[in-house]
Amino acid sequence: MNQPSEPLTREAMEAGLNAYFEHFRRDYPDCINNMLDLSIRSCDPVSRTVVFRAHTKPWMSNSTGVVHGGILSTYLDYAMGMLCHFLSGASADPSIHLDTDFLRPVSLDEPILIRATVTKLGSRVCFAESSIRSENAPDIPLATALGTYCIIS
To answer: pTM value?
Structure first.
């Protein structure tokens, strides 16, 4: 696990997560994670929470004209996985379980917030929860998920 000698600061957490983004952009340019275009809005090392911001795009549409559920699941999974990866210091952290609930349709061309929290971090498994909300109505969840990730050192 990532066990710094001093408590993790918000600035260090943000820098570490941004380094993860850069790693993916540089080493995996065609990866779907890069197509999601996440940015960090806020993070809190004490609660082990990060809030990402993204903007839905027309290519994410399903046949009814809203964001496809697979894209929403990918946002939720990526946010939780990135946070587990950073906090655990893992070399990899594949998803081993993802449970997603779609609560309301997500509009295209809309700014969204993806909040992820690590609820339990062990030496081999990380558990997390996440939600998607509209930036214009942040109190109303649009989709939620619970995820479990295998920590590979």
So the answer is: 0.93
